[in-house]
Design goal:
The complex is a heterodimer of chains A (about 280) and B (about 220).
Chain A (H helix, E strand, L loop, with lengths): L2 H5 L9 H9 L9 E12 L2 E12 L3 E5 L6 H8 L7 E6 L2 E2 L5 H8 L2 E4 L11 H11 L5 H14 L15 H13 L5 E5 L7 H16 L3 E5 L3 H7 L2 E6 L2 E6 L1 H4 L6 H12 L3
Parallel strand pairs in A: 3-8, 3-9, 6-7, 7-8
Antiparallel strand pairs in A: 1-2, 1-4, 4-5, 9-10
Helix pairs in contact in A: 5-6, 5-7, 6-7, 7-8
Chain B lengths: L12 H37 L4 H16 L2 H16 L5 H26 L3 H9 L4 H31 L11 H12 L2 H33 L1
Helix pairs in contact in B: 1-2, 1-4, 1-7, 1-8, 2-4, 3-4, 4-6, 5-6, 6-8, 7-8
The chains are: A alpha/beta (about 280), B mainly alpha (about 220).
């Protein structure tokens, strides 16, 4: 029923090193397009606490993947391992055919330019205007000229409905506007993958729609997106695949319409009940 | 009774004026050199304190702790004797004094810079790093412009303190204000008058500095 479940498995074991070696040599393109993210047996511990206990995950170009799960399940940690904001303690993380886990800082800097990230707390630069925020990475990381960066930034701000706020400091923007600005900032870098770490969790309910709308737009552009979220409705309507993480492992995954309506595992069943009970 | 009262006499003042001005100028020179050097040392050492590399972090920590936790007067005197002994060249007292002051204040500035940078929200680093901005540009464009507002008040009060501590280099014979005041006092037998006079010069330097630091302090608090 779920074809992907066969190839994308969760293991509690370290992958066979020889097999991993073989896979490194030739990342196999799959039907959905080239593999953009390839996580193999990922483990992450903080001291004696193991947060991720062997996660395997492949994401293809153009795919929108939503990661759901209870708090403390490791879903944000998994996302942060994808651009090495957290480094793996075991297993491997490959993004855009480069081994991101254990990568040297200098190389990491280059790969990260192709991996956008949107944070729960927006993290706009408070001493810069919205426009300068969107220009900064383009100039400082990509080396674009100021004129070019400004042009792209204005277009990006326009796309998220912030054209009239280009000169505003983040402090004077609403949470929803700040998050849309942060998405414009990330999008202006033209990343090959975009990571979203609970982008609506810090927002008041009435501001969430505008942010989700912006994300839907990005999905429609055919962008590869990995979204950690509690927004079940968004997952159902926008995601190509939903992944349920609990206790540091992928418990269940597949087509959101199937997985979210007819969960196989007891744990996802219970989680969905809880989420629906609290009114999403 | 009236005859026992000490009567102040500033008659020596006109004659001593040129030498006093020269001394004041020297004090300002010590202050400026030490301020610039110590801020530079503090910037580098503060950055080293935050380094991921042990071979940068540990030496910086040893330097900072040593100079913060031993007396400045001891450092000034010791360095004055130590420098010629170790380098083999004779170092002028002025230079030696400036180096001692710079090393001492550099240690304090290092801690101020470190605290200012580390007080910033971790998300600022993460946002900048996740875009692949080079480390030095992250510091220059994103971290320091924000952190500097928090650093300015403590830097201001350290500079006020530095002005006062320039007087300590008098012990190694630099003819700055305090040293000169003592010799003028000895010659004119008007120690108290001379000392009171130079207090006005210290105040003239420090009052604007303190006033400006206080203003910055208030502005930062409003915006915080």
């Amino acid at each position: 029923m779920r074809e992907q479940a066969a190839t994308i498995v969760t293991t509690d074991q370290q992958p066979d090193p020889q097999q991993a070696e073989h896979q490194e040599a030739q990342p196999e393109p799959r039907d959905g397009g080239p593999t953009v993210i390839d996580v193999r047996g990922l483990r992450k511990s903080y001291g004696t606490v193991e947060v991720l206990k062997g996660v395997d995950l492949k994401v293809q170009s153009g795919e929108v993947v939503c990661i759901i799960g209870p708090s403390g399940s490791g879903k944000s940690t998994l996302l942060r391992c994808l651009n090495n904001l957290e480094d793996a303690t075991g297993g491997e993380v490959w993004v855009l055919d480069k081994k991101v886990s254990g990568m040297k800082r200098r190389d990491l800097m280059r790969v990260r330019r192709d991996i956008g990230m949107v944070f729960q707390s927006f993290n706009l630069f408070p001493h810069m205007s919205a426009l300068e925020n969107v220009m900064e990475g383009q100039v400082s990381a990509l080396g674009r000229s100021k004129q070019e960066a400004r042009k792209i930034a204005l277009a990006a701000l326009d796309k998220v409905g912030l054209a009239s706020h280009a000169a505003a400091r983040p402090r004077s923007l609403s949470g929803g506007q700040q998050q849309r600005g942060a998405m414009a900032r990330s999008r202006a870098m033209d990343p090959k993958v975009m990571l979203f770490d609970e982008p609506t969790s810090a927002l008041d309910p009435e501001l969430r729609a505008e942010v989700l709308d912006t994300m839907r737009q990005l999905a429609q552009e055919g962008r590869t997106m990995v979204v950690v979220t509690h927004e079940m409705d968004f997952a159902r309507k926008v995601a190509d695949r939903v992944i349920f993480i609990d206790g540091g492992v992928i418990v269940e995954q597949g087509d959101p319409r199937v997985v979210l309506s007819h969960p196989e595992s007891q744990r996802l069943h219970r989680f969905l009940n809880l989420v629906l009970w609290t009114g999403e | 009774m009236g005859d026992d009262r000490y009567s102040f006499d500033f008659g020596w003042l006109p004659d001593a004026m040129p030498i006093m001005w020269r001394a004041a100028f020297l004090t300002v020179q010590i202050l400026l050199w030490s301020a610039v050097l110590s801020l530079m040392i503090g910037l580098v050492a503060g950055q080293m304190l935050m380094s991921r590399h042990v071979f940068l972090r540990v030496p910086a920590r040893i330097y900072v702790d040593f100079f913060r936790l031993t007396p400045l007067l001891f450092q000034i005197v010791t360095l004055f004797f130590l420098l010629p002994m170790t380098t083999g060249i004779s170092v002028p007292a002025f230079t030696s004094g400036v180096i001692a002051l710079s090393l001492n204040y550099g240690a304090f500035f290092a801690e101020i810079f470190r605290a200012g940078v580390q007080s910033l929200d971790k998300g600022q680093w993460e946002a900048a790093d996740s875009m692949g901005i080079p480390h030095l540009l992250v510091l220059r464009r994103i971290i320091y412009p924000q952190a500097i507002r928090r650093m300015l008040p403590p830097i201001g009060s350290m500079l006020v303190s530095l002005t006062k501590d320039t007087s300590l280099v008098s012990v190694i014979g630099v003819a700055e204000l305090f040293n000169t005041a003592q010799s003028v006092g000895a010659q004119t037998f008007r120690q108290i008058e001379v000392l009171l006079s130079i207090s006005l010069i210290y105040l003239a330097i420090n009052l604007p500095l303190a006033w400006y630091a206080e203003r910055l302090n208030r502005r930062v608090n409003v915006h915080a």
